[in-house]
Structures are given as C-alpha cells and as structure tokens.
Specification:
The chain is an alpha/beta fold. The protein has a single domain, classed as Ribokinase (UDP-N-acetylmuramoyl-L-alanine:D-glutamate ligase), CATH 3.40.1190. The protein is built from eleven helices and 13 strands. The strands form two sheets. It has a nine-stranded mixed beta sheet, with helices on both faces. Strands 3-2-6-7 form a four-stranded mixed beta sheet. Helix 4 runs parallel beside helix 6, helix 7 crosses helix 8 and helix 10 crosses helix 11. It starts with a strand and ends in a 7-residue tail after the last helix. The model has no long low-confidence stretch (mean pLDDT 97). The structure holds adenosine monophosphate.
C-alpha cells in the first residue's frame, strides 16, 4: 500500500445553482481515495454507520481501494449539509453530524502502519493525530487538510498536528484564518513557521498556489463552462497531488509542480457532476487529455 488516508466518509446533502442532492456519498476520504486510486494503491481508514450502503463500499473496492480499515460501528454515518448558492467557491455549512466519528478509534494493520505516504484528510485533528501516532515508521511524506470548524474548535490539536506534517493543504480563507495573515506569501511563511516545508493554498476557481522551500508555483483551475457541484474539489485535488507523488515516489520541486497540475486535473473532473459521479467513472485517457489541456492553458513562448 502506497498511500494511507484517514478522513470523513459521509452522506452529504448538497445544494448548488445546478440542483440539489439529499444524500450522496461524500466525505474527504472518499474523494481523496477515489481520486488517488487512478495513480497508486490506497488504503482507507474511517468509520461508517449501519446505514451505509454496501454498494458504496463496493464502489471503493472497484477502484482497488483497501477498505480493511473502514470499520462499521453502531449508529449513523457522518452527515454534512452544505450549499454554494451565493458564491460557488465557498461552501456554507448548514449542518454537521459527526455520528459514528464521535468516538472513532482508528485501527491500523501492519500494512497500514508502514505506508510510505500518509494523507490526513479533513476530520477532527485529534483523529488525524491518532493515525499519525499509530504509524510504525515515519512516512516519507505526511500531508494534511483541515477546515474552519477545526480551526475554531480544536485549534491546539490542529497546531500540534501541523507541526508534525510536511505539507499543509488548505483553502485561502482558512489559511488566512489559521495564520491571521491577509497576504498569501505571509500566510505561507506563517505556516512554515508552524512546521511544514510546503503548503498548497487552494483558491477555488482561481486555482492553487504551491509554496515550497525557496520557490512558489501557481496552477490555474480548468476554465469549465459549468461547475455542477464543487463539493470534494479540494479532496480530489489532494488525491491527484499525493497519488502522483506516491506513483513517482519522489517529493522534490519538479514532482511537486507536476503534482499540483495533476491535482488540479482531478479537481476539475470532481466538480463536473454531483458527488463522486464524475470522478468515479474516469479512464486514464480522460485524465491524460485533461492534463494536456492544462499544459496548453499555461503554455507560452519565451521572451525574445
Ligand atoms: P471539500 O473537498 O473541501 O469540498 O470537502 C467536501 C467534503 O468534506 C464533503 O463531502 C463533506 O462530507 C466533508 N466535510 C464537511 N465538513 C467536514 C468536517 N467537519 N469534518 C470532516 N469532513 C467534513
């Protein structure tokens, strides 16, 4: 197993200008693992309730995602409700029900605990810390994501976690909230001061900015004519980003730059349909073609 991910597995209620879904499979770990599965072997750590549809577990398995760490507990699956009505880039949370995540104790097998790449997808930072502390060997690369809720209610666990990771992936607004800095390079420097040596600041339809040791890199978002459901864009980005790094098994400036474009490629698919509907049905030629479109989007002649 190349990548281990822990994060939410959810049923989401979502409303966007394109329509409404009452209960669709989602969660940070779902989007991440399906996206990363196109590049490498993924193991999923999480918890589901007794209302979880077996067809959803079968969908992960059809992507060769190892679900031995996805345990079923008594109670209901995590639920999130959100809308993107005023601003398509910003989810407004209407409701969060942790349900079985409330007292989740992650269980790692030997194969999980020795994974060389670890992604701590958005979930309570105390759970992210437990998984990191359960690793038998320090992975080659540890990255995490988070959100405003955890910055507000679990700030000290989150700061402790961030001090132990290599890369923080975070939305622009949340980066500003976390660091108190308004200007992106200042926010990146404040994140470096907490511990990481790279950070990806996600800016919705404006793309991402990657800050590394003595370099920065910008990748645009793909100019889609229609965004149907932005839910999961960040996690799908992370799946492509980490999936690519794990597949080349290298974390240097060149691979980080390409990984940011692979991540943007996967995010562009995720938003084309509700939930996982588009991203779960991709082919490698689809991904290759969209990646080339990104290359063309930013190709220009050298200055003579
Ligand atoms: P994003 O990639 O940021 O759009 O993530 C969307 C996913 O995050 C949704 O499928 C939600 O189920 C999940 N989510 C929302 N709030 C939380 C939370 N507090 N903890 C973990 N996952 C969450």
């Amino acid at each position: 197993m190349k990548i281990l991910v822990v994060g939410s597995v959810a049923y989401d209620a979502v409303e966007t200008p394109a329509g409404k879904r009452e209960s669709q499979l989602g969660g940070s770990a779902s989007y991440f693992s399906v996206s990363a599965s196109y590049f490498t072997e993924v193991g999923l750590i999480g918890v589901i309730g007794d209302d979880f549809d077996p067809a959803d577990r079968a969908m992960y398995e059809s992507h060769d995602i190892d679900t031995s760490g996805l345990i079923e507990a008594d109670g209901k699956t995590f639920r999130w409700a959100g809308e993107y009505m005023e601003d398509i880039n910003t989810a407004v949370t209407l409701d969060t029900q942790l349900n079985v995540f409330g007292d989740f104790e992650p269980e790692l097998s030997e194969a999980h605990a020795n994974a060389p790449y670890l992604f701590l997808a958005n979930i309570d930072p105390n759970i992210q810390l437990k998984v990191l502390d359960s690793m038998a060997t320090r992975p080659k690369m540890v990255a995490n994501d988070t959100m405003n809720l955890w910055i507000d209610i679990a700030n000290s666990a989150l700061t402790d976690l961030i001090s132990k990771v290599d890369t923080l992936l975070i939305n622009e607004e949340e980066a500003k909230q976390l660091t108190g800095e308004e200007h992106l390079p200042d926010a990146a420097n404040a994140i470096f001061a907490l511990g990481p040596n790279s950070t990806v600041i996600k800016r919705g339809e404006y793309g991402v900015t990657l800050f590394g040791e003595n370099f920065s890199f910008a990748a645009p978002a793909y100019p889609l004519e229609k965004v149907t459901d932005p839910t999961g864009a960040g996690d799908s980005f992370a799946g492509g980003f980490m999936g690519y790094l794990a597949s080349v098994d290298k974390v240097d400036q060149e691979s980080l730059r390409t990984a940011a474009v692979v991540g943007s490629t996967m995010a562009s698919f995720a938003v084309e349909d509700f939930g996982l509907d588009r991203i779960k049905n991709l082919t490698h030629p689809d991904i290759g073609e969209r990646f080339e479109a990104f290359v063309n989007l930013t190709r220009f002649s050298p200055l003579k």
